[in-house]
Specification:
Blueprint lengths: L22 H12 L4 H11 L3 H10 L11 E6 L7 H11 L12 E6 L11 E3 L2 E3 L4 H13 L17 E3 L12 H9 L1 H11 L11 H10 L6 E6 L8 H8 L1 H15 L3 E6 L7 H13 L16 E6 L9 H8 L23 E5 H13 L1 H5 L9 E8 L5 E6 L4 H7 L5 E6 L5 E3 L18 E6 L4 H15 L5 H18 L5 H17 L3 H5 L2 H9 L2 H4 L13 H4 L1 H6 L11
Parallel strand pairs: 1-2, 5-11, 6-7, 6-9, 7-8, 10-14
Antiparallel strand pairs: 1-3, 3-4, 10-11, 12-13, 12-14
Helix pairs in contact: 2-3, 4-5, 6-7, 6-10, 6-13, 7-8, 9-10, 10-13, 16-17, 17-18, 18-20
The protein binds flavin mononucleotide and iron/sulfur cluster (SF4).
Length: about 600
């Protein structure tokens, strides 16, 4: 990801742009049509949307799915997540099709690259081809893909079963296992009135499921009380944390509950408009989601005078991201909605008082909103009689990695890690990454710890590493992820994530010394303390956890010198030696 100056949230009020005319949507169409975004097209688009050309350009440079130079007619991006990726597959297809990773083949037919986790961790390895999700890759499937590409078959005509994503719900709980009549939550809210329903949500103890765990009732109350010309509800469906895919299942099979939660929130806070910000990797869900919205309009659950209420109109629109993990951070997400780079804002002010277009905005995770709809139907006691002391209700987990049955599991908070491992058939487990790379890495002596805000908090990712996993390689993978996904706004994170990545690369390649480990510890601590937003504040977690819990991982790879330079000066002169045809001693640095 390119780096730029800081967020532009102090300048004039951004225009609301919706539907097909949202900058991200127009750029996606262009990328599909031209295989890149030509400069002239950016200028024309800027004129049409009345945006500065510099803004359009900076957006193109920021998001991973947009490119200034042409990609192949077939543009393949393999997930590089430890759960839904497999680098060997990417390399074998590159070899088969004679493509250099990250480059477009000279004839322009195909380009192959890697991308951050695409949320298919229960059915990987997986890739995106021209933005469409293709799952369960095998050597045979790669050969079939190569044949389709060589035959010039349009992606739309490839066998549909290659793209069929499954839900894999392994364990139902309160939310996944309880159905309610569409509209029942909204009717209950209207019957009770906004204040009483707000009290009900607060009483339920529901806390945000996106990671931070802020009280949902409190968030809605602050927003309801905030003054503004308009209020907004935003559903955060960016789900970019590697190993997380539970929102994908909710959107696929429980979209009514999610939209109902958004509408109830709108009713309570006094909003007329809601947005679902869907990660670009889940574009395949778009048509179905739009169909659900249409049905809800038809049933008067959305639109003018919802359920006949003269003073409540509410619409929901979908905005689709373009490959940037940071856009899951709520203020970066709002910037992205406003057609800008996804750079986190300086907070306060928080979105509840100054969010989308500078107006009071609630941003909630998909699961939080679905839970709110259920609470409206079934009541707060139905919810908070489950869970632990400080964590009411249940949590939906995305379980992946070394286990027999990866998929989605819903548990009351307070469940032990060991119980989850038993249920998914995980044996000889070396470590679990709870909450994804930004979460907590634990080993077997901590498997009796419990899921919950008071012990192990998680946004839902639960990645299992068996005894044969190379844990250091996992740490390297995470470090590359953060170095790639940093938005570049603040120096500790922009520079620090790259230094951490370089340090780990050096140790993993067998060139590290104790000095490098000490340096990495110092750097990790600094990045954690000094970064502007949650990305930088959590990026060092895997390294710090591993240093504390798995020190042997590093020790066994160290060389026995106190200092080993990061840079091989003699090797760097190789190209010059080749150009000058010299191999004599003086052309070398001894
Ligand atoms: C780097 C980063 C990525 C995030 N990604 C997501 C995400 O994909 N989905 C999400 O709901 N929250 C994500 N969050 C948390 C949001 O900023 C925010 O707290 C959340 O959407 C609030 O909703 P909740 O109260 O329902 O949890 C992310 C935070 C950070 C720092
Ligand atoms: S911590 Fe990282 S992602 Fe967050 S604002 Fe700073 S550079 Fe951007």
């Amino acid at each position: 990801m390119d780096t730029h100056n800081g967020p532009d949230n102090t300048t004039g009020s951004p225009m609301q742009q919706s539907g097909d005319d949202h900058l991200l949507h127009r750029l996606f169409d262009m990328q599909q049509q031209f295989r890149h975004i030509p400069k002239q097209a950016m200028i024309e688009l800027a004129g049409e949307l009345e945006l500065p050309v510099s803004q359009v350009e900076s957006v193109v440079d920021f998001y991973s799915f947009f490119h200034r130079s042409p990609r192949g007619t077939y543009d393949l991006m393999f997930s590089n997540c430890t759960s839904c990726g497999d680098p060997s597959m990417m390399h074998s297809l590159c070899e088969r099709l004679n493509v250099t990773p990250g480059k477009t083949r000279a004839d322009g037919l195909v380009s192959i690259d890697s991308t951050s986790c695409i949320g298919m961790c229960d059915q990987g390895p997986a890739l995106l081809v021209n933005g469409r999700t293709l799952i369960q890759l095998t050597a045979l499937r790669l050969e079939q893909i190569a044949a389709q590409i060589e035959a010039g078959t349009p992606v739309e005509d490839w066998p549909v079963e290659w793209f069929r994503v499954h839900d894999h719900v392994r364990k139902n709980g309160l939310l996944l296992g309880t159905a309610f009549e569409t509209g029942a939550g909204l009717r209950a809210a209207i019957e009770k009135g906004p204040e009483a329903m707000l009290d009900e949500i607060a009483r339920s103890g529901l806390r945000g499921r996106g990671g931070a765990g802020f009280g949902t009732g409190m968030k809605w109350k602050f927003c309801r009380e905030a003054r503004g010309e308009a209020h907004y509800v935003v559903c955060n469906a960016d789900e970019g944390e590697p190993g997380t895919f539970k929102d994908r299942i909710l959107l696929n099979s429980h979209a009514h509950a999610v939209f109902e939660g958004m509408t109830i929130c709108g009713y309570i806070i006094g909003a007329q408009k809601g947005y679902l910000y869907l990660r670009g990797e889940y574009r395949y869900l778009l048509d179905d989601l739009k169909a659900v919205l249409k049905r809800r309009i038809k049933s008067k659950l959305l639109g003018e005078k919802v359920l006949g209420l003269p003073d409540f109109s509410f619409d929901i629109e979908i905005i689709i991201g373009a490959g940037a993990y940071i856009c899951g951070e709520e203020s970066a997400l709002i910037e992205s909605m406003e057609q800008k780079r996804g750079v986190p804002r300086v907070r306060p002010p928080f979105p509840v008082t100054k969010g989308y277009l500078g107006q009071p905005t609630v941003v909630n995770n998909v699961e939080t909103l679905a839970a709110a709809a259920h609470i409206a139907v079934h009541g707060s006691a139905w919810f908070n009689t489950h869970g632990s002391d400080k964590s009411d209700g249940t949590k939906i987990l995305s379980v992946s990695g070394d286990c027999a049955t990866p998929g989605v599991y819903e548990y009351p908070f307070g469940v032990s890690i060991q119980r989850i491992l038993d249920d998914c058939g995980a044996e000889d487990v070396q470590a679990v990454q709870v909450g994804g790379p930004s979460g907590t890495l634990i080993g077997p002596d901590e498997f009796e710890r419990k899921l919950g805000f008071e012990d192990l908090a998680t946004g839902g990712s639960f990645m299992i590493y068996g005894k044969d996993s190379d844990l250091l390689a996992v740490l390297v993978n995470f470090a590359h992820f953060f170095a790639h996904e940093t938005c570049g706004f603040c120096t500790p994170c922009r520079v620090g994530t790259t230094l951490l990545k370089n340090g780990l690369d050096k140790i993993a390649s067998g060139h590290g010394t104790q000095n490098d480990v000490d340096e990495m510890y110092r750097m990790a601590t600094l990045v954690k303390r000094r970064s502007h937003c949650g990305l930088g504040q959590t990026a060092p977690n895997p390294i710090l956890d591993a240093l504390q819990r798995f020190p042997g991982l590093f020790e066994e790879r160290l060389v026995h010198t106190d200092f080993e330079p990061n840079f091989d000066l003699d090797a760097s002169l190789e190209e010059a030696r080749q150009i000058t045809h010299r191999e004599d001693a003086e052309a070398h640095l001894s």
